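Lesson 9: reading folded outputs for more than one chain in a single document. The general rule is that every protein is listed as its sequence immediately followed by its structure tokens, and records are never interleaved. Here is the first one.
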Amino acid sequence: MNDKKLLASVALFGQLYNSTKYTNISGIIAEFIKGAIVLNNKYSLTSYELKNLLKETYDFNLLESIIKTVIYSNLKDIVDVENKVFNFNDSIKEQYKTLENELEKVNQINDSIFNGLINYISVVEKKELSDIEKLEIHENFSQFLFENGTSDNYSNHISSYIIKNETDTSFVNSLNEIREGLILYHGIRYTADINELGTWKNNMVIYLNTEYLFSAIKYNGILYKEIFDDFYNLVCEINAHDEKISLKYFPETMEEIECFFSSAESILKGDKKLLPWKTAMKKIVDSCKSPSDVVALKVDFYSKLENLGIVMQEFDYEINEYADFNVVDENVIEKLKSISKEKKMKFDEESCYYFFNIFTKVNFFRKGYNNKPFNKIGHIFISDSGFAKYLGHNNSVKFENSDTTFAKDLDFVTTQFWIELKKGFSGISEFPKSFNVLTKAKIIISSHINSSMSKEFDQLVKDTEQGKITKEEALARSYALRLKPNLPIEVTHENIDETFDFLNNENHLADIYQEQIKKDELVKETQQRNIELQQEIERRNIIDRERDEKERKEREAKMLAENKKKYAAEMDTFKQNLNSHLANSWRQELKNTKWHFWKYLIFVVIAVALIFILIAMRDSLLTSLNIIITEKVKLYYSGLVTVIGFIATAIRSFFDTKNILFALTIIFSNKSRNAFKDKKLTEFETDFRVNNREPKME
């Protein structure tokens, strides 16, 4: 198979199908037939030759019946049939709408995507890839875009590459166009008559495994619930008018479910530990507070399944009644063991017997008629277990190589229903989420993460028990495991690099632990340096504080000295002024006191002297005034002297006799003067202090 040619062809097929130019698949196939004829310049050929020509040109491997149907329905006006040979006339050249340019554009886009993948793998693997490796990568890439299983060696690389570019809308859309075209192409390949597309005509019983039942009730998260709903809605559409599809599960599956809920009870009792990557278990445990809640939840679980029309398939037959349909074969199991050993793969013998028992029941209900196409097989077991699908597709397990396998997965069945119902991808119907390559990539990565986490956890327990690692290291690694994005929705372009390293580096957890140790040591060193730095800072702060304190005290001492000096100067001035004031005031007071006495004494002397003179010199004064001295005049004169005497006496009364006497004692008594002086000085000082503020020490 030319993968590159097929990828370009189916991508273009998907583009044409999504366009509004064509109303059916036959019209699109007709365009490819025209293209193959014109490009190869072959106008006369049989249906077999045309089948090979389509294979050679576009790598389309279509049934002859489909090719004939398209020619008779879409190209009948430009072809003549003679002896089973189709002769196309020249008008096909005019009607031919070349696909070469469109294919070239698609090829360029595909080459860009694939070259990006090669470069990505080269970078993460840190090596140049050989041509053989590139060829294997291309095959794996092609398988990834359509196969329901995962590609082999490079599934993680391819998925990581897609997730890393999830924000590139053009990139994701281009990949989805390829995947959509592949889905349509494979649907057409296995349809004998494309005119039958549009309805599902046959009865079928689908037996669901445990994980799909959990997804139906949303135990596995939103994304898996949506994927299941895409499938379930198609089933409902098929059953809308006539119930063709039945959904059931086997007693083995019910036993598995019972064990699951029983484990949940043990976890709540503390007898078991909850493994964080077990999404359904975590959902159940988180929803319950006690073991009795688990029992109630289990009843609710079966009730919800019944409401969805999903019931258990009873199987009461004895082994001898269906021995002819028995799939269990010890020789086959030994052969599968040998193959697994050669490929260095783990072989789960217990699971092998489990699935073989289920396959036996499926074969029993098919009555051994397995050589039928999927849409007519009648009974199918669908499981998300890669081991179940591996066993189901193994030619050693199937009775004939052409038999329809006993086991498929939900994506495959959804795809078949989608094609049979002729849904397409035009946007009229929202296509299933499982068709999206980004969803598929995230599911693959999360699935591998869960598987790796389980293995790593088991290895941690083993290494701890054997003393290879300490309990501290085991706890650290266990914690690192719990941080891994084990749900598809948690896997993003932001964490895909670390996730990829976890999946592809056996020493990932050990590296994380060692890195954590280094970080812890660095943190300790940093903390110690911080402590030392803090101590040095504190030491310097103490020195600075002591220096500042010393400088402060020196400043205060200096200021105090200056203040004292200033205060002393101000006090000296104050005292000088006070003493000057006291001296001046006392002199003035003493002067006033003495003057008060002397004024009185002088007045008395003058008054007495005047009266005496007036009396003694009466005659002389009167004579000098030319007054004749008579008795009457004498009498008048004596009256005048008396009046003057009265006036003098009156004036004398204005003098304070007490103060005059006090002044007399002051003048003539040192003791009295000193006592008076002390009293006055006190008054003067008080008066001075009232009017003059005494300096204070600042």
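And here is the second record, again sequence then tokens.
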Amino acid sequence: MNGVWNASLGMVCLLVVAAFGSAQDDPLPLARVVADRLQTIEDDLETDGDARKARRAATELFDRVIAVTPLDRPGPILDVAIARRRIRLVERASQQDRQSLFSFLRRSPNLSAALCFGLDSADSPQGAIGVLQVLRREHGERLERFANLTAAICIVRDKGAPRRDSATVPELFAHYAGREKRMFFGVRNLPVQLLVHVVDVAVSPGEMRWALARYGGDSNVGERYNDVPYDDAHFYQGAAKKIDSHGYTLQNLRKYGGICSDQGFFASQVGKSIGVPAVASAGRAGQVGHCWVGYFEGRGRTVGWNFLVGRYTEYRTVRGWVRDYNGRNVPEGRIAVLDALIGTTPKRRRTADALVDAAKRIRSLRRGKKQLPGTLGAAGELDAPRTPTVDAELAFVQGAVDRSVACLRGWEHVAILARTRTIDEKVIAQWANALGRVCGRDYPDFSAAILTDLIRGVADTSRQATLWRKARRYFRRRPDVAAELAMQEARLWEKAKKPAKAHAIYKTIIEKHANDGGFVLDALARARALLEKNKRHDLVPKLYATAWGKARQPEPSAVRKASNWYRIARAYADICDDYGMEKTAKKVRRKIKSVIG
């Protein structure tokens, strides 16, 4: 009996050992393997402070992860992308601060991700670290609760305050975090890309508190544009601005008034002070430049940017430009497309950015003619590892924009591939169609900017010209956009040594768009150069006479010299002098004097 029992017990033990051994031999899930390796890399960095070694190890792991991770389960790519960005950020810190800073960021995963993915190529990582260190001393672990707010402040103030009397970094944080419940959209859940248009406020803490006390909870920030009385004497007679003899504050602007740029500044700063993303936007029609306000509007279920308040009818079809916190003039459309961030989760947005990181890494390997390393030996890997091809690169970008239409880095990556002639015409057409489908109608300025790079990527001149014409028809309701696309086609024909075709397009622009924007002056100059190059000097004065005849005379104002009518007239008079047409030149100048004064 004992023998039988012992034999049975031995068999059970063998079965248990076999089962246990089998389980141990099975590959571990991919996410767990990646997490374990990341922990080792980050533990080492926290211990020895060697950020360069950590960066190399994280990049090697990233290469392995992008080689084997399925696109429908991109979690490991996101995890490594965040860690890699965090390590690269810490590497910019001083040697004595690295370990402490890294430990803090590691304990603050939301802040870490918000900051690392919020920084772009125009930002200063060292400057952002400096701002973060100031906030850490003041608020410590509280920053993680306000992760997006903290990241936005670090990004906006990386190069210092916009004005001498602007709120300091601690004052900014205190205003928004300390009055969170009074902020119209709050400050915790707004994406960083929208919050930067809140915390780039350029007025003093006192003005911010005044705006919040007077306008807090206002759902229609755009109407504040009209709270600034228009300084008619300055605009129409050129008198000194009333505000110039007083301090330039929100309170004084409301009392003494200003012109459109002051109205845009006032409304945008009020919006920022009460927690509403807002910008001052400007554009130029045929008459004169103008400034209006753009603000993030939330009424009922409608949420998104509104760029219509203060934008007179003649500017509804003119491209607006915004001076951002880095001092760059960016198209209004690049900000408008941020509407699409609403309704997406932070994880989805960050995954989109991580997939673009993967695409960029593949591009780097592909251009360096390097291969991705082997597998991780984990369950959940692709059956066959990826290779660094253009198709793989595009697949990652496709995954990014599928998750977030407002993943600007994704669209811009495709534009780079087109501009460098890395993708063929068929692929360009596919992406152009996708762009038009998801962005074209709602975000025409953004779509046109990306589309321009895509079309330039078509090598064949005739086929590229066909695409320019199709694009112009698509944007026919935006004459300024259509005219700029026409200019692209004309330059194409110039480059192709087809001056007659280029001149015909320039002439069409001059005849149809003399009142739509300053680009008509560029079209005139290029058309003139073509005529003179081809010895058709006799047509140059006629060309300018035609343009001047189609331009509308400006309304009386102190800035009417910025109108197309005036600028074309001046150029026409000078050309008449050059061509010995003194009588005509004098006649044109008399007309200018009678209108302009």
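What the second record shows: The radius of gyration is 30 Å.
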